[in-house]
Amino acid sequence: EIILQIIFNIICRLGKLLKKYLLIQVLNLLCGKFAERYGIHLTMVKNCDNTGGFIVTNANIIEIPNGFKYILGTEKTGLTIEDLFGNQYVWIPEGETIEDGFCEGFFFSRYEIAIDADGKFVSKADRYPIVDISYLDAQRIAKSLNAKLISNKQFERIIKWLIETNAMSEEEIFKDSSKKGNYKNSGPHRMVKTGFNTAWMINNIDNLAGNLWTWTNSGDEKSKILRGGCCMLDGNYAPLGRKCLSYIEGSRFYTGLRVIL
To answer: Does the predicted TM-score (pTM) go above 0.90?
Structure first.
């Protein structure tokens, strides 16, 4: 795999230098087939700061945004990228949702958004998430991160992906998510820091179930859908598959946010 990676990088850089982008596309296809057969992934870095580029895995090509680099995981276990400041995002592959049809792939914040010591909003471990915010607050914070709030359809895609990869069963998602996140009946009965419990890291996404409700941008002009449950409710009352509505102006009980790139 290491030797193939070196060859892959050399030919890709040569192709870019000669502006032979077709060469890169053909190489992506060939390496994708190789990756699919042998279960490996390949990364082509395109910037001098080792960020950006492409990941070829299972015959798919995933573009890494400028300013980010690949750090761990696969499409099945949670392919994770990180920016120059340590913010991490997980790739959600394209596919069907539970109830809303097909959804394109997207990068989703690995952690609930928090505020760093320097006042910047971050997606990092070992931080207390932002809590009790309104939808309007959430929109403003997402914009400051050059990101967007997740839609309900995209959240449904994450749920379907967890089922497809056997990370969670339908019963754990729709009936009782207590063992998969920070709930009243499975945690310390309070909000916890990001990365608090590795058992709550599902496909490299931290505390998707429990801890804080997540604002989505789906709904109408008066209210938006919340997803994910929270630490003040039991996991069988507010499992991952549950959704509820909240007025956009006010902050609802234990609401936070995650973003997509």
So the answer is: no
